[in-house]
Design goal:
- Belongs to the YjdM family.
- This is Alkylphosphonate uptake protein PhnA.
- It holds the Pfam family YjdM.
- The radius of gyration is 17 Å and the shape is elongated.
- The protein is mostly beta strands and 118 residues long.
- It folds into two domains: 47 residues, Single Sheet (N-terminal domain of TfIIb), CATH 2.20.25; 55 residues, Roll (SH3 type barrels), CATH 2.30.30.40.
- It is 0% helix and 28% strand.
Length: 118
Amino acid sequence: MSTNTPCPNCGCEHVYPDGSLWVCPECGNEWSQSAGADSQDAGDGADGVKDANGNVLADGDTVTVIKDLKIKGSSQAIKGGTKVKGIRLTDGADGHNIACKIPGFGAMNLKSEFVKKS
């Protein structure tokens, strides 16, 4: 298997193709076959924050909430379909990696798995 490139995250040599992606069995990293080892040089594209559909998010993007989200300590909920403009990506240790202001609710943090890029 000399055509396999090592994993750009952990350097594992035991990667395998899965459809149009390469998969590392040790760290679970997936990357494009066309990008190969050069994907690590591209920056945070492979490691960036991704939405529910797998699209990479960036600061200033507009996202849409995909399901109703209960707000801890409140009787209100953020309805699915709510658009949130001008997000900021953060390194939230609790999994909340998007900081934003939601109209009618104010500033709060969201998990990227509950939004999609608009």
